Amino acid sequence: MSTTPPSPTGAEPTGAEPTGTSDESSLGSSVESSVRIGALVPLTRPGWVEAGQHLLAGLELGVREVNDAGGIGGGPVELVVRDTAADPERAATAVDELSRLGVVAVAGEYHSVVARAVATRADALGLPYLCSSAVLDALTGQPTERVARLSPPQSRGWRTYADFLLGAGHRRIAVATQPGLYWASGTRILRDHLTPRGGTVSELDMSVLTPAAVCDALAEQGATALLLLVGTPEPAVPLVESVRRDGRLVEVMIGAPAGQPEFAEWALSLGDHGAGIPFLRYLPERLGPLGTRVEKALRERLGASPSFVAFEGYDTVAVLADVLRAHGTDRARIAESWPGVEVEGTRGWIRFSRMPGIGVWQWAGPPIQVVDRDPAEPGRFRILHTG
């Protein structure tokens, strides 16, 4: 298996200055003084590859800037990347490998069930883990001091989405679901929040229903909103196409709280059908000076508008660099430092705290938006609700 990840779309051409990304072939004596950070990202199917590319672009940009500023203790930061391919077992094995290679911490990951496997294994090994972009509330089976997270917990984000539905007048909600902890958790959060407020949530199991059968069920139930709690491109793309073409369902809003429409692949797959589908993203209404500068650099690196996931990657390195400068590279000291973090990120000041029901150190303040692609201009995002 190749350990060198593919470059993000639009990444720097061959001959550009190195960013500090390595595989084990480059971890010889020439970098014995480097500070190694393990990076876990989905870069091949069935992982969400575009999300992984954006996350890696943010991580690499952060590392490059740290090294341009002198590194850590005079030595460069070395990003040791492993592709998780959305496979929890593969990710846990990668954590073992990275620990043996001497990384001071692991970071990254987008898929929640994979991040849970990473957090569990890292905790068992005494290895600090900073989760960049996974939202599952139960990131670990029990509370731990070694794991911290930048992305908001799913319960906060999806309750914000439920409030948006209520404010838009939607009470009869259908969710197209697939088996899985993340989707089941999302369904439960929506139902628990909507039911006491007069809403109903009915489940349509995409493991047994065709898109045509889902359309029939929507028409029969009189649902006003269909939420896509499913993977992309399958079965999300054909389901959206079926609903959009069904004359009985022209008034049904399609929603995607998991964020599928954030990425260019969605727009390329669905064209105009992919617009007007509200989803969650974690950006402020306006970026400050740091965020604006980083956005420009990420855009140049990716050759496209950066998603919130790319900003999460950059902020991950900003936090780790601050911790390493202040506390050194000892794993135990890094883990002990999470509650003292106070770092300017691209989307606000980052501080970790304990939140009820969350077993890891959590940034409580990431911004949350419900946005969609403007049907009149699908390349432009409209902010519909903030939380």
UniProtKB/TrEMBL annotation:
InterPro entries xrefs: BCAA_transport, Leu-bd, Peripla_BP_I
Transmembrane portions of the chain: none
Residue span of region Disordered: 1-31
Keywords: Signal
Residues covered by the Leucine-binding protein domain: 34-353
Low complexity: compositionally biased ranges: 19-31
Family, similarity comment: Belongs to the leucine-binding protein family.
Protein name as annotated: Amino acid ABC transporter substrate-binding protein
Species annotation: Streptomyces phaeolivaceus
Taxonomic lineage of the native organism: Bacteria, Bacillati, Actinomycetota, Actinomycetes, Kitasatosporales
